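Request: When convenient, would you put together a sequence paired with its structure tokens?
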Amino acid sequence: MTASLARLVFPALRWRPSHGGFEHERAKIDAALAAGVGGFIIFGGTREAVAALTAALRQQAGRPLLVGADLERGPGQQVQGLTELPPPAALGWLDDLDATATCGMITGAEARSVGVNWAFAPVCDLDLEPKNPIVQTRSFGVDPVRVGEQAAVWIRALQEHGVQGCAKHYPGHGRTTQDSHATLPRVPATAAELQEVDGTPFEYAIRAGVGSVMSAFVAYPEWERSGRAASFSAEILGYLRNTLNFGGLVVTDALIMAGASAAQPVPAATVAAVAAGCDALLYPNDFQRVVAALDRAVGADISTARADDALARYDRALQDWGDLPDQGEPDLAGHAGVADGLADRVAHLVRGEAPEIRTPLVVSIVDDDVGGPYTIPPRDVFHQALREAGVAVGQRATGNRERIILVYSEPRSWKGRADLGPRSRAALRRLVPGAQLVVLLGHPRLAAQIPGTAPILLCWHGQPLMQRAAARWVLRAST
């Protein structure tokens, strides 16, 4: 008799400092482990809290677990106290495979040290569509081979340090003009084009031995005629298995996304995903209903052979990644130095000549990321870094001669657009004339939307790492 498919289900646990950290998730944890889930996804937390949580989860379960996290920009993306790394687009621009491999090593060593053994990275999507609202700087770039090479070296280094990688979002999210968090995007490209272009980075990832591949909640009607998303397409997932010879875990994207439930409720969608070839189901809100639906479907919508195959793949992944020996404490100070060095290398001017920065400074922020379901990251790191170096920073000026403008525009779930919004553009029209410098913490394409002739320093992303790099650049240019 086939065992429960609960092991294919991975609920999410979110850190909330105002609710005792992870303590508010206690009832969910108890119920999930009692149901027999395969592991969890962790969002946020301090280094100490995440390490304590993952150890407690495994102790309570009495068995190994897969514990995953989104770590596209290094372990510091989720875990406070671990190392942030530049976004993939910056690494792709740098085009230094040794540097990218070092980023994979740092991610693996530090994630493993807090009990995270599954990284939902790297993004293997191509940055093909300027209006894509969700990929942008998460991609290594446009060229399929170069993106594939970057992904492959990152994966090898990550997995050599005990953490399973996840190439995403197969067969490619790079051509979409909509966000699959908010809807089901449709890509009109032909199957041949998707296989030969968009699929190339995934082939590199598979040859590098990547442990898992995440399927996209995106429809490709020229390939899958029914219009189903890739996660529900036996044809698209069959190509991954049978033509690309991928033998690891095929996983869904987060089931809270609208692309997952566009055609049917989430419990039914998970049944369709497993039947089509998925082996792991990420981030369902109501995991108990999902487990019940899966177990009812075995022998009917899900064949017994397909259920057994999915469970066997999970078991193999657990054998490979679930219980590796302790690697000791990572060199956090050394890793931070590497990250700062990389951040300095990727920060560069994309318009104008390097100015002589006049002090004291006035810093204005144009934040294109305000709003949406998630709070924005800290926006004061740049200011703090300058003040710590002895530079006076204010917010008001009679003119713009001493003004530096920080423009924040990141790919964010449910944001729904790739361009700067009208409010941001209006603010830039008012602030840019006469300004000393504009620091763009976003995709380089956005430089074309910044009016005037002020020099533009590209820093790729608003994360603290890149804010500090921008501050160091300004200090070097100060008079």
About this structure: The radius of gyration is 23 Å. The mean pLDDT is 96.
